[in-house]
Amino acid sequence: MQDTTADQTDRPLWPALRRGFSRKCPNCGSGPILKSYLKLRETCPVCREDLSHARADDGPAYLTILIVGHLMAPLLHISFVQFRPEPLVLFTIFAIGTITLSLYLLPRLKGAIVAFQWARLMHGFSDSH
């Protein structure tokens, strides 16, 4: 009995990740991968790639928290030590920055995770349909 999964090769990862991060289909790079802020499309409207296999779950949220936390915590410390702003000013600036960065990254990281799964043939993404 021959293993058919060993015959399948992975798709190019970095182009797929760039396309996914830009919220485009990892296959064609043209069609939008999301139909609303975080709702994944069933299929690509351009190339008809089946995207229903994707399982992003909590991954985008964890990555967003990781990235935003690692950027904002050092910036908060540096700005407090260097400039000593009023606490309310510091809170306001960093609250707005944190929310803005989180809202920017969340759909892009979801697209990147779906593109990673597509490139690595995970969760039903395979060449044989």
From TrEMBL:
UniProt keyword annotations, A-Z: Membrane, Transmembrane, Transmembrane helix
Domain of life: Bacteria
Entry's transmembrane regions: 61-82, 88-106
Organism of provenance: Roseovarius tolerans
InterPro entries: DUF983
Name of the molecule in the record: Uncharacterized conserved protein, DUF983 family
